[in-house]
Design goal:
By secondary structure, this protein is α/β, with parallel strands linked by helices. The protein has two domains: 34-186, TIM Barrel (Alpha-Beta Barrel), CATH 3.20.20; 211-509, Glycosidases (TIM Barrel), CATH 3.20.20. Helices cover 41% and strands 15% of the residues. It has helices at residues 2-21, 43-46, 59-66, 82-95, 107-110, 122-137, 153-159, 167-182, 195-205, 211-231, 236-242, 251-257, 287-290, 319-331, 354-358, 361-379, 424-434, 439-454, 457-460; strands spanning 36-40, 100-104, 141-147, 188-192, 261-268, 273-276, 293-296, 337-341, 346-347, 385-390, 405-406, 410-412, 420-422, 468-477, 487-488, 499-501. The strands form four sheets. A ten-stranded mixed β-sheet has the order 15-4-3-2-1-10-8-5-14-16. A hairpin with a 7-residue loop joins strand 12 (410-412) and strand 13. Helix 1 (2-21) crosses helix 18 and helix 4 (82-95) packs parallel to helix 6 (122-137). The termini are far apart. Residues 1-22 form the signal peptide. Belongs to the glycosyl hydrolase 1 family. Keywords: Hydrolase, Signal. This is Thioglucosidase. One of its GO terms (molecular function) is beta-glucosidase activity.
Length: 509
Amino acid sequence: MARGSCFFIILMIISLLANANSSQILDRHSFPDDFVFGTAASAFQYEGATDEGGKSPAIWDHFSRTYPERTKMHNADVAIDFYHRYKDDIKLMKELNMDAFRFSISWARLIPSGKLKDGVNKEGVQFYNDLIDELLANDIQPSMTLYHWDHPQSLEDEYGGFLSAKIVEDFRDFARVCFEEFGDKVKMWTTINEPYIMTVAGYDQASTDDKEAAERALAFEIGWHLDPVIHGDYPEMVKKYVGNKLPSFTTEQSKMLRNSSDFVGVNYYTARFVAHVPHIDPEKPRFKTDHHVEWKMTNHSGHIIGLGEERGIVLSHPEGLRKVLNYIKDRYNNMPVYIKENGISDNDDGTKPREEILKDTFRIQYHDTHFQELHKAIVEDGCDVRGYYAWSLLDNFEWEHGYTARFGLYYVDFVNGLKRYPKDSVRWFKRFLKGSVGESKEEDVKKMARVEWNKTMHEQEGFEESASFFLSFMATNQSTREEEKNRCSIDFPISRFGGLHGIENPMSF
């Protein structure tokens, strides 16, 4: 009996170690030669210097100052002071062997009133030109986002911001200034970061497991934004459920929109299960109820969609990344895709010592498992993915979470002078991006084996039930100023922490 038990235990250990080592050991050379690796940021979350250099208050300045209880009593007046420290932070990118840096332009810094007729802020132009030049001097390609949720508060006061069609002309002028001032150096552009968050969290939400439900959620979160720029119209399912609340395109608008993107940008973080909601209150119509879908972290058996709830706001579900890439490949003619954001946070309530936060083995595992799924999507499934940007280089101001959600590869000491400290994930990324071989890889394998062994049997179980994934979207418009190889993009949202859904067969999209 004892001998049999010992035999069972040995078999189980061998089985677990086999699972731990079944993943490929990847490095940058496992991906296509021209594949881009970078980090991502946004102006409001990084820059600080809110009242310097001619910048006017942006909507998030107003929001965080007026309703501090909504942002953990934090604001981004200083943020991580990237405005003054960008040269040192670019050195960190260089040391990481990153190819690119995705960042956004503050509309309120470039055109403080929001209106071109009132003039362009030359100090703002100079700052972004200096930033771009410093990146290029370090062989880091700039990838620029026009709008990352921070238009001037003056436009919100005047006509309600993006609730008014008047913003189209002002945004067009802002974009034109950006292209004219920076277009000779910046070859990749995205327009609006995560339109889903901007619309639903900004205007709908803030003002208050079956296959069909999953497909409906996909239509509302991906199709709502991507179908128009590829097919020239909203998905039929969205039109069916929203009815006359959904605007319609004229024939000319539809023609102009169709195939107007060069690539799709995806911000992928996590996943959710979905369930059908049969009844809604007809007296309170809103986006969050139009799709008749409820997002859940657990399925009907009580299984959680992924690991990490105790750490922060992201549950790791790397399989969802492969699913969404295949969905885009199948529905949108295998358009080129860039993963514009991917990362995981550590919750810091002020009680954790820095040394503990620096030991971010969970972040290493998160990126490694997502690279595994990304590699499968490219090599096995034929998805045309051309780049990956980690969110984020540095801990920063995370919107409603303030400074409590740490997504950075580098720790930022918000109490003592904003000093940067490398987390363990920095060393991992350096090895990954150098394509090192030998002992460091063996150490990584052993480490991952230990991680797998320490998981509970529950955590090792796969989930065949409906899985959903949180992601954000960016699609890109074709540039009229640059040759075809130069990318000019538009961002399409699918909530950063809002979800999409898979189905029983993981590859059945």
